[in-house]
Amino acid sequence: MKTFNKEELKELLLTQAPNALEEIFEEIHPVDILDALRDLEDDKYTILKKLPNWLVADIFEEMDEDEQQEALNIFSEIDQFKIINEMSSDEITDLLGNLEPDRVDRFLGNIDKEEAEEVKELLTYEEDTAGGIMATEFIAIKEEMTVIDTLGYLQATGLDAETVYYLYVLDSNEVLTGILSLRDLVTATFDTRISDIMTTSVKSIPVNMDQEEVANIFQKYGFQAMPVVDSLGEMLGVITFDDIIDIVREEDNEDIYRLGGLSEGEAVDGPVIDSVKSRLPWLLVNLVTAIIAGATVGLFSSTIDKLVILATFNPIIAGMGGNAGTQSLTLIVRGIALGELSKENAKRVFLKEVIAGLINGVAIGVVVAILGLIWANKPIFGLVVGVAMILNMSLATIVGYLVPVTLKKLNVDPALASAVFVTTFTDVCGFFFFLGLATMFLKYLM
Amino acid sequence: MKTFNKEELKELLLTQAPNALEEIFEEIHPVDILDALRDLEDDKYTILKKLPNWLVADIFEEMDEDEQQEALNIFSEIDQFKIINEMSSDEITDLLGNLEPDRVDRFLGNIDKEEAEEVKELLTYEEDTAGGIMATEFIAIKEEMTVIDTLGYLQATGLDAETVYYLYVLDSNEVLTGILSLRDLVTATFDTRISDIMTTSVKSIPVNMDQEEVANIFQKYGFQAMPVVDSLGEMLGVITFDDIIDIVREEDNEDIYRLGGLSEGEAVDGPVIDSVKSRLPWLLVNLVTAIIAGATVGLFSSTIDKLVILATFNPIIAGMGGNAGTQSLTLIVRGIALGELSKENAKRVFLKEVIAGLINGVAIGVVVAILGLIWANKPIFGLVVGVAMILNMSLATIVGYLVPVTLKKLNVDPALASAVFVTTFTDVCGFFFFLGLATMFLKYLM
Fold it and tell me: Coiled-coil intervals in this record (chains A, B) (predicted)?
C-alpha cells in the first residue's frame, strides 16, 4: 500500500467520495487526515460530514478543545451521539467536560449505557489528577487462566486500538494482583499458567495523584502504561505514555510561559486578540512593580540631582540583580517541577544558593567597583558601587530561592508571578542599596 | 509477592547476601535499587560489587553519565566486560561515547562480536540524531509467516525486556515493508498470514533526523515505538517512547535554562562550584550589556542633571520594554522548538507580533503618560513618557521575534543568548527614546 503525503491526501479527500475510501483511511493515521482537513479550510466541514463515524471519532480525538467543540456542532444531535459512541471513555470525558450540564446529561442518556456509567465516574475526578487522565478500557484476566486460554479470550473479544500492551490480573474483588505484558504472553508456552508468568510487584498510581507527579513516575520507570487504583487497591483504569508526553509538554510549557510572563493557551500562530489578552494583564502587573522601582529612585532625587553619575550606574546594579535572581529562580522552579527539590535537600540547596550568590556577587562586584573607580575617578565611588552590587546580587539569589519555595508552600504554582516578584525585589533593593549608600557617603563622593 | 519501599530495600541490601536475593531482585525495578544504593552512600559500591552482572547492567542503564563512569571504574576490567555484555547496544554506545578511544577499542574487542559491530555502527551517528538514540534490538519477521509460526518463533527465541511491542516485517533486502503490533498478533487466529494483518503504511524515522524533530513526531502520532531507516529504506533500529520522554524533558529544560541564563547540567542539588561555573559566564556577558545600557544613560547626563525626574521614569520605560520583549521572545522560542513556527506562517506571526506590540504599547503608554502628567504636573512630560513607552514596547516585541528567528537561521539555538540580546536592546532603546525625546523637548519640560 502506498503512503500519502499531505498534498495527495488533500487531493484524495476533495475528489473522491469518502465512503469509497474506508479501506484506505484505515491505513492512514487520523492526525494526518486532520492536518489535511485543516489545510482545506472552507471544505473542511463538508468533507468531515461525509466521513464514517469511527473515523470522525478518531479525528476528534486528535483535535484541540476549541476545534473539537466547533466541529461537533456541525453535526446533527443524532450524529453527535453516534460519533461520541465511537470514542474512548477518557476522550468523551474531556469533550463533555467543556459542555453545559444539561447537554452532558442528554449525551449520557444517548450513548452506550456501560460507557455512560464510566464517563459519569470519570467526570467526578479532577481534570489534572490521575483519575482525570486515565482511560477505563483495559483487559482484565484471572490468574488461573493459561496462556492458550488467554489467547483464545483475546482472539474472541479483540483488542481496541486504545488498549495497552499489558493484561491486568484481578482477583474476585477487582483488586489488582498482577500484570502480564503481551511480550511475556507471546513468549510463554501455551500451557503456562498466568500466575506463573505475571509480575506481582505491581507499581500502581493512586487515583487522586497530581498529573505532574504521575509524569515524573512514568519518566523514572519508563513504563508504557500504568494501572490506576483506588484506596482499596481496586483497579479503575490505565494511564498510557502518550498522555504523559502531552502532560510533560503541557507542564513544561506552562512553566516556560509563566516564567516569560505569558498566559497558557497563547498559540504562536493565534489571533492578535489572544496575544493582547495573554500579555496585557501581566504587563499591567509589571507596570505597578516598575512604578514601585521608579518611585524608589524618586526617593533619592536630591542625591541624584547632586551626583548625576548615579543615574548611569543605577540600571547596571538593578539589572545584574535581576539576572542573578532569574538564574536561581529558574533553577528552583524547575527543581520543584521535576521533583528534584525535596524536604530532605531544601536546606542544603538554600545554603548552596546563598554561597553561590555571594561568590558571583563578589566577582561581579569587584569588576564594577573598578569600573566605578575609573569612571568617577574616585575610589570611594567604586567602593559604593561594589558593595551595592554584592548586596543586591546576594539578596537576589536568595529571593530567587525563597519566592518559588514560598509560593509552593502556599499551594500556588511556583512559576506563577515568581519572575515579577523577584525582579521587582531586585530592582527596588538595587536602587535602595546603591542610592542609599551613595546618600550616606555623599559628602565623600562629590 | 510483597513490594518494597526504599527503607526496606536498603535494609535488604545491607543485611542479606545479594546472591541469595536474585529472585527478589528480578521483581524490583532497577531504578528503585539504584535509589536505595544512592541513599546508602558509603556502602553503595561494596553492595553494587556483590550484585549479579545482569542486575548491575540494569542499574547502570538508570544512572546519569557521571555516576555511570564512576561506578564502572570500581569493577575489574574483566567484570566491566561482563557487565557491558549484558547491556543493550544503545546504552553501551552512550557509555562508550564518554571513554577514551583506546579504552573503547578494548571494550569492543572483549564483548560479544555481533553486539560490538552494532555498537561500532551506532558510534558513527551524531548523539542528538535518530541514529544516536535508537537501539538496534528488534524482532524482524517475514510476511509469508502465519500467526502460529510467529508465536512459535517468539517462544523459541524469547523477547528481551528492551524489545518493543511491534514486530517488523522486512523483505529479503532488509527493507521495512510492514509493521505488526503484538496486539494484532494475539487477536488474530493462528492460521492468519502476517501479510494479511500487518500495517503497510509504515511511518519511519530517517536515521539522521534531529532528536527534537523525532520527539515532535512521536508526540503527534502517539506511537509506542518507531522504526529508524536509512535512505534506502533498510531498517536500522527502533526508537521507543521512553527515550522520547527523556528527550522532551531534556530539550524543554535546555530552553528553560537558556532563557533563564543558566548552563545545561546545573543540578538543583549540585555543588556550589557547578552553580558558579554555570552562572558566572552569563553574568559577565550580562554585565557588558548592562554597562552599555548604563553608558546610554551616561550620554544624557546633562539632561538628567537639569531634570532629575527623568531618572525616576528611566527604569519604568526600560523595564516595561524588557517585559514585552521577553513575552514575545518566550512565545517564539517555544514556537520554534515545538515546530509550530514554520516558513508558511512566519509572516503572519510577525505581523501579529507587530500589532500586539503596538496595542500593548499604546495601552501601557497611555497609563504612564497620565502618571507622568500627574507626577511632573506638565502635560508635555506625560506626552514624552507615553511616546517613549509606545516606541520601546513596540520595538521590544519586534526584537523578541527577530532575535530567535535570526539565531535559528544562523543555526544557533534560538534560546541561547536570546534573552541577553533582547533585554540589552530594550534597555538601550528605552533609555535612548526616553532621554532623547526629553533632550529634544527639554525647554518645554523645565
Answer: none
Mutation target to probe the A interface, by most A beta carbons within 10 A, among B145, B149, B277, B291 is B291
User: Could you tell me the CATH number of the domain that includes residue A234?
Assistant: 3.10.580.10
DSSP B431-444: HHHHHHHHHHTHHH
Model confidence over B336-363: pLDDT tens digits?
888 889 888 999 999 999 999 999 999 9
| Positive or negative torsion for Cα A349, A351, A356, A361 | positive
Tens digit of pLDDT for each residue in A126-173? 988 999 999 888 999 999 999 999 999 988 887 765 566 899 999 999
**Which chain B residue is nearest to residue A268, measuring alpha carbons?**
B335
Task: Quote the number of domains for chain A.
Answer: 3
Q: Which residues, at least 6 apart from A101, have a Cβ–Cβ distance to it below 8 Å?
A: none
Residue A406 has pLDDT above 90, yes or no: yes
Neighbours of A138 (CB within 10 A): 21
Displacement of CA B213 from its chain's centroid (Å): 11
Residue tagged 503618560 (cell numbers): B369
The string of pLDDT tens digits covering residues A358-372 is 999 999 999 999 999
Sheet containing strand A140-141, edge to edge, reads: A140-141, A166-170, A176-181
| In a shared domain, residues B163 and B99 | no
Nearest to A240 by CA among A180, A172, A161, A186: A161
In whole angstroms, give the CA distance from residue A401 to residue A417: 14
Tell me the mean pLDDT in the region B378-391. Answer: 95
Task: Return d(Cα A316, Cα A35) in angstroms, integer.
Answer: 49
Residues A126, B433: Cα–Cα separation, whole Å:
50
**Domain identity same for A284 and A426:** yes
Q: Which domain holds residue A99?
A: 6-124
Smallest CA-to-CA distance from A186 within B186, B180, B160, B143 is with B186
Q: Do B222 and A242 touch (CB under 8 A)?
A: yes
Q: How far apart are CA A418 and CA A431, in angstroms?
A: 20
Indicate yes or no: CB of A268 within 8 angstroms of CB of B349: yes
